[in-house]
Amino acid sequence: MTLLPDVYDGSEEPLYNIGVVARMTGISMATLRAWERRYDYPLSKRTAGGHRLYSEKDVMNLKWVKARVDEGMQTSQAIQALRHQQEAGRLITEPEGVIIREKALEEKTYLPVIREQLIAAVLSHDLSKADLILGEATAFNSPETIILEVIATTMAEVGESWENHNIRVATEHLATNYLRQHMLMWMLNSPPPRPVPPIILACAPNEWHEGSLLILGTILRRRRWPVVYLGQAVPLPDLASLVRDINPSMIVLVAMMEQSATKLVEWAQWLPEVAETGRPIVGYGGRVFTREVEWRSRMPGKFLGETYQQGLENIEQLLR
After folding, report:
1. 2.60.40.10, 3.40.50.280, 3.40.50.720, 3.40.50.12780: CATH of 199-319
2. What CA–CA distances, in Å, run from 320 to 103, 190, 195, 223, 316?
3. Spatial separation of the C-alpha atoms in residues 118 and 130, rounded to whole Å
4. N or C: less crowded end of the chain, CB within 10 Å?
5. How far is residue 86 CA from its own chain's centroid?
6. Would strands 227-231 and 250-254 be described as parallel, antiparallel, or unpaired?
7. End-to-end C-alpha distance for the chain, whole angstroms
8. Looking at domain 14-87, does it have CATH number 1.10.1660.10?
9. pLDDT tens digits, 41-84
10. What pLDDT was estimated at residue 94?
11. How far apart are CA 139 and CA 20, in angstroms?
12. Which pTM value belongs to this model?
């Protein structure tokens, strides 16, 4: 009798929607729903809107069940075998096809390999492979680590490739939106926020590059800071109205290009009471302020730093 391989016991945090899980496992969405109805498996979590969410542990166990079914076992028997293994407390190897961990077991080389694999996958439009890479990465790293060490670099590489005309606009949009969806999902499924006034995050008027703002917002939310994420191209009059309505603890503004920074420096005209009192705190950042230091003297507020880590540390220090 052939011994069944052990079942991998990964993270139980709900991260992936049913479409992503279908791509990662090769099990159709219809089949996943049918298994849940017939066998009460997998018992997915639900968002406030009723959408299914699956954890890394769910994904790996689904791959294990599918491997058994592909070997000829009945679905009900495979699920029963899985449950038996779990009840016995057996922790085991993952199904074949894990892309990264075998290549780099030491942490010093692990994350760079993930980055290289992810960049190659999104630039070649292979989102199924990208799902596998991120799924493997989140099994052994927190979303915060993945965002700072992998996604931020991948987004920068994609942006530079587009600026240098090495990729087409469609490829840039596909890759950026793919990574954006993951961060929004992590933001949505963050722990409950602290009972403090929120942080408003907004891009400058006419600023459509929101990657750095979304990275900051997602990690702040993961660290339990309440976030009001406004995203791209926020008109200053609308921003001022919202600030007066919700009285935030801080406003974080981002501009990447000189054109958008030119508009952003005018924020104090729309929020003169904030400029006068320094409350709420206004922090800013973005490529234009990092590369061209003279812009900092023109911009009211506190420069948050040249890196994401500096920005996060400064924001938390200012709030505390």
Report:
1. 3.40.50.280
2. 41, 21, 13, 13, 6
3. 6
4. N
5. 30
6. unpaired
7. 61
8. yes
9. 988 888 877 888 888 788 888 888 888 888 778 899 888 888 87
10. 47
11. 15
12. 0.67
Six-digit token string for 134:
């991120």
Neighbours of 12 (CB within 10 A): 11
> At the top level of CATH, which class does the domain 107-188 belong to?
mainly alpha
Judge contact between 222 and 186, C-beta under 8 A: yes
